[in-house]
C-alpha cells in the first residue's frame, strides 16, 4: 500500500508546476523546453522518484524538498509562485512528513532555512509581495517550532531571527505584517530560552572557532539603491556565544503529536533581486529600517571577535551605514558591495567539528553549506543549535535597548524590552554564565538609563524587566539592585513639575512588587543596612514610604495607598510566618531548630528556586498547543541529566560575607555591625573634611588600630566608596605618609595588565593632585609596584615612569577641552616620537604604544568627580562593576522568616502611624478594612514576639478612634451610635484585648477608660452593672439607678433640691429623646454587645500574671478625685476588680496583697460612710466567703478581715448590717475551714462590734493611725500589732466583760482618743458627736464641718440629680477621707 504522504507531495508538485506553466515565461509546452528549464526539470525528476517508492521515508528529506526550495531561491519566479512553494514547504513541516530521526533531516532543515531566509522573487504589487513575506514568516515559525527544528545550526537560527527583525523594523511595510513578525519573534524567543536549561556550555577552545561567525547585526541604509545592488542577501546574525554541541534531538514521538500545532515563527528577510528592475519595495524590507544589530555598547569580548570577523570580510544582516564604525579603530562595517556572495572561508559549524569530513557535494548554498544525499553516510555532521545562538540573540536584544544608540528608535527599544521580558520569563538565565555577564554589564545599564525617559510605555516595560531580573538574579546583582532602588526612590521623591504623576505611581508599584518577593525585604536589610559601605536601603525606604503615606493636602491618592501597601507587605509576610510558627507544634519547632544550619537553609532555598525554575521550563499543561513552551517541552529528551547536574552545582554552599561570622548572623551581631557602620559614616564625614581628624576619630572608636597600621588604613581607603577621592589623593601623597602610599598601591593587583590599563585602575581610586612633585611621588610608587607585578618588562624604573607619565599627558591632550581648543590632538606618530629612546636608550615596542594610544584615545581615563554627563555615568558604572567583582558583591539569601523581629521593630512605628492616618481620613469601606486588617496583623506579631510597647501603642491609637474618650456623657450614645468607624475601632480594640490580652500593659488604662465611659453612658450590658449584695432581698443591686425619694429613706426636701439643680438642657432632655437618638443608642448598645466587654473579666483567668497585675493596677488607679472620677466610677472599677480576683482564685496568692492593700485603703482610711466604703466591705466579705475553701490563702483571707476592725467605729456601725449578713453567710458556708483561735477571735470581735455597738479593739485603731503615713499594713503586720495572746485566753472568743475590762485598764489605755493624737494622725474629725447621717440634717452638718490642718475632704454628689447608688445614705453629707499619699489636696468626687 502506498504511503498517503507520497500523494500529498505529488499534489503539491502539481500545484507549483501548474502555476509555473501558467506564467508567460513558460507558455511553450514542448517537452524540450521543460527539460531545459531547471525548475521544471527538477520537479519531473522528483515525480519519477516518487513513482518508484511506497514509503516517503525511503528517500532523504532533501530529495523531495529540493525542487520547492529552488523555486523559493529563484530570482525569476513571481510572488504567487514563490508563495505556493512556501505553502508546500509549510505543509510538509506541519504534516510531519519529515522524520526528525532520519539521518538526512539535519541537512534538509539547513537547506530549507537557507532557502527561505534568502527567498527571492519578482515583485508585482505591494499587497501581493506582503502576502509572500507573510508566508515566509509562517514557514520560518513552523520550521523552528516543529521537532525537526532542533536540527538547525546556530547560524541558521540567527539568520531566521535576523529575517524576522528586518520585517519587524521595516516601517514601510504594513502594520499587520510588522505585528505578525513581532508575534513570530515572541514565539521564537520563548522557544529558544525555554530550551536554555537543555544546553551545556562549550569548552572555550570550541567556542572560539564559532563565536566569530555568529554576530547579529542590523543597520539601516539610507539609500534603498544600495540594497538593490546587492546580488545576495546579507549574511544573518553572527553569534558570540559558546556553542553547545547538544546531541541531535530525535523527537520522533513529538513529530506525531505536534503536527502543525506547534507555532514558533521566524520571519525571514527576503533579499531583493538586482537583475529585476521591477522589484517592489516590499521585497527589500530593511532598506530604511535604521536597524543596527551590533550596537556600540557591545562587550569587549564581542569587539575582539568582530575584529577577527572583519578580516574575513564577513557581515551579517543588513549592513550598517558606511560612516558608522564600532568604537574600535580598525573595525568598520562593510558596505553592501563588499559582502561576497558566497563565503567559502566560513563554512558551516560542521567543518569545525572534530568528526566533520566534508566531501564533494551536489549543492553549495550561498552560506557555503554543501548538500548531498549521501552526506550523512560519508560522515559529515551538522551540529544542532545551542547556547551560541541564544547568547548572540540575547546580546542583540540588549543592544536594542540602548537609549544612547541613535539607531535605536522607540519602536526598536520597546521591541527589545518585550522580547527580553519573554526571555527572562522563560528561562533561568542566572544559571548561564555567558548570559549573566551580559545582564550585569549592559542590560542593567540600559534599563537604568531608560528609567529616565519620559515615554511611559518604555518606562513601564523597563520596570517590568527590572523586576524579573531582581526577582531571579539579585544574588548576582547586589550593587545594581542598590542603584535601582535608589533610582526608584529618587523618582518618588523628586519635586519636578514635569515628572508625570503616573511615573511616581509606577515606581511605587515596582517597590510594592519587589517587597512582595519572599525574603526580599529581609535581604535588603541584611545585605545593605548591615553592610558597612552600602546605603541603609531598608531603613530609608521605610521612612520614605511612611512619609509618602501621609498626604500633604489631606486627600488620599493612589501613591499614598501604595506606600501604605508597601509597608503592609512587611507586616503581612511577618504575620504569615508568625501564624505558621504558631500552628506548628513544639516538637516540630525543635526539629527545625536542629535543622537550621546554614547548609540546610541554603538547600531549602535552592530547592525552592529549583521548583520555580522547573515551573518555568515545564508549563506544558498551561500553554496553548501552539506555544514555544510546549515545543521546548517536547524537545527535552535526553536533558534530564543536564538539569540534574546544574541543580547539584546550585546546591554548593553560598559564600559568606567577610563582615559576618557565619552565614546567618545573630541579631546581636547585626546590631553591632549597624553600630559600627554609624561610627564609620561619622569617621568618613570627618575624613572628607580633614583626613587626619577622620583617622583619629576611628582610632578613638577602636575601628582602626593604634598605633596606625598602614595596611589596615590602605584597605579602608580602597573599600570605602563614601570617601572623597580628592581627600584620598591628598592624604596618600603627603610626604609624611610615604609608607601608607606603598601600602595603598599594594592593594592593587596589576598582574597581567598593560601599563595603561593598570594606570586606569589606579587613577580611578583617587583624584590625582595637580602639583608635579606630588604626581611624581604617586607615579613612582605605582610604577615600582607594576614592575614587580609584571616581571620588569622595561629596561628600568625610569622607562616605566616615563611611559606612565606619557600616558597621563596623552589622556589630557586627547580629552581636555581647554587643551584641544589651543592645539590639535596628538597623533600616534607624535606619541611614538615623544617616547623615542626612552626605554633605556631603546624604543618601546611599537605595537604596545599603538595599543595604548588607541585605548586612551577611544576611552578616556576618567578622573573621579571631575566629569559630568555620560562620561561620569560610565565612571560610576565601572566602579560599581569593580565592586561587584570583589567579596563586597556577595549577596546573601536568607530563609523566609529570618530576622522578622528586627524588621518589625523598625517598621511598626511608621506603619501604625500610617494606618492610623489612613483609617482616620478614608471613607471607603475597603481601605478602612485594610487598615483594620493591618492593625490586627501588627497586634498578632507583637503578641507573638511579646512586644508589649507595640501592642500598647496599637491599643492607644485605636482607642482614639472609638470616640469614647473625647465625647461628653450626654452625647456619647448618639455620637458613638452614629459613627460606623467608631464601631469598627471599638470592636477591634475589644477583639485584640480578648485575643492578645497577655501582652497588654499600659493599654489596660485606655481600655478601662473606655469601659468607664460606657458605664457612665449606660451602654454596658446589664450583667456588668449588676453586683452581689447581702442585704437586698434579690441578692443583687444595680450600680446605676435613678434617684427616687422613697429609696432608702431619702427626704423629700433633698429630692426637691436635686430637681432644682437640674439645668434647662437636662430638663428638656427629660421630655424624651428623638427617634434618631433612640436609634443611635440602640445601635451603640448592639455594638457594645458584640464587643462583649464582660469577656475581659471572665477570660482574665487566662492572662499571664504580669498582664493581670497591670489590669488590676489600672482598675485600682480609679479612685475618687475632683477632676476625673467620681464615687460611682470607683465603685464600678472595684466591682470589676473583685470579679477578676474571683475568676483568678486558682492563683489568688499572686495578687492577694494588691487587692488587700486596696481594700485596706478604702475601708480604713474612710472617716465617713459612703457607697464606695459599703461596696468595699461587701467585697471583702464576698472574697472571704469564696476563698476560705482554698487552703493556701484561707489564713491570709481571715487575717484580712481585721481590716473591718480597723475601720472608724462610726463607719463600721454604718455597715454593720452588711457585715452581719456577710459573717452569717461566711460561717454558714465555711465554718469548717476556720481552724485557728486567732481567726475565731477576729470573727467574734466583729460580731460584738456590729451587734452590740462595742468599739473595735483600740490596738487596731492605733495601728491604723500610726501606720497612716506608710500606707496599708500586711496581714502579718496586723497580726503582730494586735494579737489575742495579749488577753492570755485559750478559748476562741472573749466575753463582753473581758473586752470592757481590758479596755478599761490604765496600762492598756491608748492615747488614740486625745486631741494630740487626732492632730498627729492626720485625720479630719467632726465637731458633731452624732454619726447619724441622712436624717434631713445634711445642710446643718455641712456648715458644722471643721477642717483641721487642710486635710483631704471629698464630697460625694449624685450625677444629674440622682443619687450615687442605692446604698448612699446621704447625697450631701461631707465625707472625710484620708487618701494616704494624696494629703494636702482637696478632692471632689464628680457626679
From TrEMBL:
Pfam families named in the record: Sec7 (PF01369), Sec7-like_HUS (PF12783)
Composition-biased stretches (Basic residues): 227-241
Protein topology in the membrane: Peripheral membrane protein
Subcellular location, record wording: Cytoplasm; Endoplasmic reticulum-Golgi intermediate compartment; Golgi apparatus, cis-Golgi network; Golgi apparatus, trans-Golgi network
UniProt GO BP: endomembrane system organization; endosomal transport; protein transport; regulation of ARF protein signal transduction
InterPro entries linked: ARM-type_fold, Mon2/Sec7/BIG1-like_HUS, Sec7_C_sf, Sec7_dom, Sec7_dom_sf
GO terms for cellular component: endoplasmic reticulum-Golgi intermediate compartment; Golgi apparatus; lipid droplet; membrane
GO MF assignments: guanyl-nucleotide exchange factor activity
Compositional bias ranges of the Polar residues kind: 252-261, 1270-1283
CDD domains linked: Sec7 (cd00171)
Classification via SUPFAM superfamilies: ARM repeat (SSF48371), Sec7 domain (SSF48425)
Name assigned to this protein: Golgi-specific brefeldin A-resistance guanine nucleotide exchange factor 1
Amino acid at each position: 500500500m502506498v504511503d498517503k504522504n507520497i500523494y500529498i507531495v505529488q499534489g503539491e508538485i502539481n500545484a507549483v508546476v501548474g502555476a509555473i506553466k501558467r506564467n508567460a515565461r513558460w507558455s511553450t509546452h514542448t517537452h524540450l523546453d521543460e527539460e531545459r528549464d531547471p525548475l521544471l526539470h527538477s520537479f519531473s525528476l522528483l515525480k519519477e522518484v516518487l513513482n518508484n517508492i511506497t514509503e516517503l521515508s525511503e528517500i532523504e528529506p532533501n530529495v523531495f524538498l529540493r525542487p520547492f526550495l529552488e523555486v523559493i531561491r529563484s530570482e525569476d519566479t513571481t510572488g504567487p509562485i514563490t508563495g505556493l512553494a512556501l505553502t508546500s514547504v509549510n505543509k510538509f513541516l506541519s504534516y510531519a512528513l519529515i522524520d526528525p530521526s532520519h539521518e538526512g533531516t539535519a541537512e534538509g532543515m539547513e537547506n530549507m532555512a537557507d532557502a527561505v531566509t534568502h527567498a527571492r522573487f519578482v515583485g508585482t504589487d505591494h499587497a501581493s509581495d506582503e502576502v509572500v513575506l507573510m508566508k515566509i514568516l509562517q514557514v520560518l515559525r513552523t520550521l523552528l517550532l516543529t521537532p525537526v527544528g532542533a536540527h538547525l545550526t546556530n547560524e541558521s537560527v540567527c539568520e531566521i531571527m535576523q529575517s524576522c527583525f528586518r520585517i519587524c523594523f521595516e516601517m514601510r511595510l504594513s502594520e499587520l505584517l510588522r505585528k505578525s513578525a513581532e508575534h513570530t519573534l515572541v514565539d521564537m524567543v520563548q522557544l529558544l530560552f525555554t530550551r536554555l536549561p537543555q544546553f551545556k556550555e562549550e569548552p572555550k577552545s570550541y567556542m572560539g572557532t564559532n563565536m566569530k561567525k555568529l554576530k547579529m547585526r542590523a543597520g539601516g541604509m539610507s539609500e534603498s539603491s544600495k540594497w538593490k545592488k546587492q546580488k545576495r542577501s546579507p549574511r544573518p546574525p553572527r553569534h558570540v556565544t559558546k556553542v553547545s554541541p547538544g546531541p541531535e534531538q530525535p523527537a520522533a514521538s513529538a513529530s506525531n503529536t505536534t503536527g502543525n500545532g506547534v507555532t514558533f515563527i521566524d520571519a525571514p528577510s527576503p533579499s531583493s533581486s538586482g537583475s529585476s528592475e521591477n522589484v517592489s519595495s516590499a521585497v527589500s524590507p530593511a532598506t530604511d529600517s535604521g536597524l543596527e544589530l551590533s550596537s556600540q555598547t557591545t562587550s569587549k569580548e564581542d569587539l575582539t571577535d568582530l575584529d577577527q570577523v572583519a578580516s574575513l570580510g564577513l557581515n551579517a544582516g543588513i549592513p550598517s551605514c558606511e560612516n558608522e564604525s564600532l568604537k574600535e579603530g580598525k573595525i568598520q562595517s562593510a558596505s553592501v558591495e563588499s559582502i561576497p556572495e558566497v563565503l567559502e572561508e566560513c563554512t558551516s559549524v560542521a567543518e569545525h567539528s572534530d568528526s566533520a569530513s566534508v566531501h564533494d557535494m551536489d549543492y553549495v548554498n550561498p552560506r557555503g553549506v554543501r548538500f548531498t544525499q549521501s552526506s550523512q553516510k560519508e560522515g559529515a555532521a551538522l551540529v544542532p543549535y545551542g547556547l551560541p545562538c541564544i547568547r548572540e540573540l540575547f546580546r542583540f536584544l540588549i543592544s536594542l535597548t540602548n537609549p544612547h544608540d541613535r539607531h535605536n528608535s522607540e519602536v526598536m527599544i520597546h521591541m527589545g524590552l518585550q522580547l527580553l521580558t519573554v526571555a527572562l520569563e522563560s528561562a533561568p538565565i542566572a544559571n548561564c554564565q555567558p548570559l549573566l555577564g551580559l545582564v550585569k554589564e549592559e542590560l542593567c545599564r540600559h534599563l537604568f538609563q531608560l528609567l529616565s525617559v519620559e515615554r511611559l510605555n518604555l518606562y513601564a516595560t523597563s520596570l517590568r524587566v527590572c523586576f524579573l531580573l531582581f526577582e531571579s538574579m539579585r544574588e548576582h546583582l547586589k550593587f545594581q539592585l542598590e542603584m535601582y532602588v535608589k533610582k526608584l526612590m529618587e523618582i518618588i521623591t523628586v519635586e519636578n513639575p514635569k515628572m508625570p504623576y503616573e511615573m511616581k505611581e509606577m515606581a511605587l508599584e515596582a517597590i510594592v512588587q519587589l517587597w512582595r518577593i519572599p525574603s526580599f525585604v529581609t535581604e535588603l536589610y541584611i545585605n545593605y543596612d548591615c553592610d558597612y559601605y552600602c546605603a541603609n536601603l531598608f531603613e530609608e525606604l521605610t521612612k520614605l514610604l511612611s512619609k509618602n503615606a501621609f498626604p500633604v493636602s489631606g486627600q488620599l491618592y493612589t501613591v499614598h495607598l501604595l506606600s501604605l501597601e508597601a509597608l503592609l507587605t512587611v507586616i503581612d509576610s511577618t504575620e504569615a510566618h508568625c501564624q505558621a510558627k504558631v500552628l506548628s507544634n513544639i516538637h516540630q519547632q525543635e526539629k527545625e531548630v536542629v535543622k537550621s544550619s546554614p547548609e540546610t537553609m541554603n538547600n531549602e532555598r535552592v530547592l525552592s528556586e529549583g521548583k520555580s525554575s522547573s515551573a518555568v521550563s515545564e508549563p506544558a499543561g498551561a500553554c496553548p498547543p501552539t506555544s514555544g513552551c510546549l515545543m521546548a517541552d517536547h524537545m527535552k529528551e535526553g536533558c534530564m541529566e543536564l538539569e540534574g547536574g546544574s541543580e547539584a552545582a546550585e546546591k554548593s554552599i553560598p559564600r559568606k560575607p567577610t563582615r559576618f561570622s557565619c552565614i546567618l548572623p545573630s541579631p546581636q551581631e547585626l546590631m553591632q555591625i549597624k553600630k559600627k557602620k554609624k561610627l564609620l559614616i561619622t569617621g568618613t564625614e570627618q575624613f572628607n573634611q580633614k583626613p587626619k581628624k577622620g583617622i583619629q576619630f576611628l582610632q578613638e572608636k577602636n575601628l582602626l588600630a593604634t598605633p596606625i597600621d598602614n595596611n589596615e588604613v590602605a584597605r579602608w581607603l580602597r573599600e570605602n566608596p563614601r570617601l572623597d577621592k580628592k581627600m584620598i589623593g591628598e592624604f596618600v601623597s603627603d610626604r609624611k605618609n610615604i609608607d601608607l602610599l606603598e601600602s595603598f598601591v599594594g592593594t592593587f593587583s596589576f598582574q597581567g595588565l598593560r601599563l595603561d590599563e593598570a594606570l586606569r585602575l589606579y587613577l580611578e581610586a583617587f583624584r590625582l593632585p595637580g602639583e608635579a612633585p606630588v604626581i611624581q611621588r604617586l607615579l613612582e610608587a605605582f610604577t615600582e609596584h607594576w614592575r614587580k607585578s609584571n616581571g620588569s618588562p622595561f629596561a628600568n624604573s625610569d622607562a616605566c615612569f616615563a611611559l606612565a607619565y606619557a600616558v597621563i599627558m596623552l589622556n589630557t591632550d586627547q580629552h581636555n577641552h581647554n587643551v584641544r581648543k589651543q592645539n590639535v590632538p596628538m597623533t600616534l606618530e607624535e606619541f611614538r616620537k615623544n617616547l623615542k629612546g626612552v626605554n633605556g636608550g631603546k624604543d618601546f615596542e611599537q605595537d604596545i604604544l599603538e595599543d595604548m594610544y588607541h585605548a586612551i584615545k577611544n576611552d578616556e581615563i576618567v578622573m573621579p568627580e571631575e566629569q559630568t554627563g555620560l562620561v561620569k555615568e560610565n565612571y560610576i558604572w565601572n566602579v560599581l562593576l569593580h565592586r561587584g567583582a570583589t567579596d563586597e558583591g556577595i549577596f546573601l539569601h536568607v530563609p523566609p522568616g529570618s530576622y522578622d523581629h528586627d524588621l518589625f521593630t523598625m517598621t511598626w512605628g511608621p506603619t501604625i502611624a500610617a494606618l492610623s492616618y489612613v483609617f482616620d481620613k478614608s471613607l471607603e469601606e475597603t481601605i478602612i478594612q485594610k487598615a483594620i486588617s493591618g492593625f490586627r496583623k501588627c497586634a498578632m506579631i507583637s503578641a507573638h514576639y511579646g512586644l508589649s510597647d507595640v501592642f500598647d501603642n496599637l491599643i492607644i491609637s485605636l482607642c482614639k478612634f472609638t470616640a469614647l474618650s473625647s465625647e461628653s456623657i450626654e452625647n456619647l450614645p448618639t455620637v458613638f451610635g452614629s459613627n460606623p468607624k467608631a464601631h469598627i475601632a471599638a470592636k477591634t480594640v475589644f477583639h485584640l484585648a480578648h485575643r492578645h490580652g497577655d501582652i497588654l500593659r499600659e493599654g489596660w488604662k485606655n481600655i478601662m477608660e473606655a469601659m468607664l465611659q460606657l458605664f457612665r453612658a449606660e451602654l454596658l450590658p446589664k450583667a456588668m452593672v449588676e453586683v452581689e449584695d447581702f442585704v437586698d432581698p434579690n441578692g443583687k443591686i444595680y450600680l446605676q439607678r435613678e434617684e427616687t425619694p422613697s429609696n432608702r429613706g431619702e427626704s423629700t426636701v433633698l429630692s426637691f433640691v436635686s430637681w432644682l439643680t437640674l439645668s434647662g438642657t437636662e430638663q428638656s432632655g427629660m421630655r424624651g429623646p428623638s427617634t434618631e437618638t433612640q436609634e443611635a443608642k440602640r445601635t451603640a448598645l448592639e455594638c457594645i454587645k458584640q464587643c462583649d466587654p464582660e469577656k475581659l473579666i471572665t477570660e482574665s483567668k487566662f492572662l499571664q500574671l504580669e498582664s493581670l497585675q497591670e489590669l488590676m493596677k489600672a482598675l485600682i488607679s480609679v479612685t475618687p478625685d475632683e477632676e476625673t472620677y467620681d464615687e460611682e466610677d470607683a465603685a464600678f472599677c472595684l466591682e470589676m476588680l473583685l470579679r477578676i480576683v474571683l475568676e483568678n482564685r486558682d492563683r489568688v496568692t499572686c495578687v492577694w496583697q494588691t487587692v488587700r492593700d486596696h481594700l485596706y485603703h478604702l475601708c480604713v482610711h474612710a472617716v465617713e460612710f459612703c457607697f464606695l466604703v459599703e461596696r468595699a466591705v461587701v467585697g471583702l466579705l464576698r472574697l472571704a466567703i469564696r476563698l476560705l475553701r482554698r487552703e493556701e490563702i484561707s489564713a491570709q483571707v481571715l487575717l484580712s478581715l481585721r481590716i473591718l476592725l480597723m475601720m472608724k467605729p462610726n463607719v463600721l456601725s454604718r455597715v454593720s448590717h452588711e457585715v452581719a449578713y456577710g459573717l452569717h453567710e461566711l460561717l454558714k458556708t465555711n465554718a469548717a475551714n476556720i481552724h485557728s483561735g486567732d481567726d475565731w477571735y477576729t470573727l467574734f470581735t466583729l460580731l460584738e462590734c456590729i451587734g452590740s455597738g462595742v468599739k473595735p479593739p483600740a490596738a487596731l485603731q492605733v495601728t491604723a493611725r500610726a501606720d497612716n503615713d506608710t500606707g496599708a499594713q500586711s496581714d502579718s503586720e496586723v497580726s503582730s500589732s494586735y494579737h489575742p495572746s495579749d488577753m492570755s485566753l485559750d478559748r476562741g472568743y472573749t466575753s463582753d466583760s473581758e473586752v470592757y475590762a481590758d479596755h478599761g485598764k490604765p496600762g492598756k489605755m491608748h492615747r488614740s482618743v486625745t486631741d494630740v493624737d487626732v492632730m498627729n494622725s492626720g485625720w479630719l474629725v467632726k465637731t458633731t458627736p452624732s454619726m447619724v447621717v441622712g436624717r434631713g440634717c445634711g445642710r446643718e452638718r455641712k456648715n458644722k464641718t471643721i477642717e483641721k490642718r487642710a486635710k483631704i475632704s471629698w464630697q460625694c454628689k449624685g450625677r444629674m440629680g440622682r443619687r450615687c447608688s442605692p446604698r448612699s445614705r446621704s447625697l450631701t453629707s461631707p465625707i472625710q477621707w484620708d487618701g494616704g499619699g494624696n494629703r494636702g489636696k482637696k478632692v471632689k468626687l464628680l457626679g
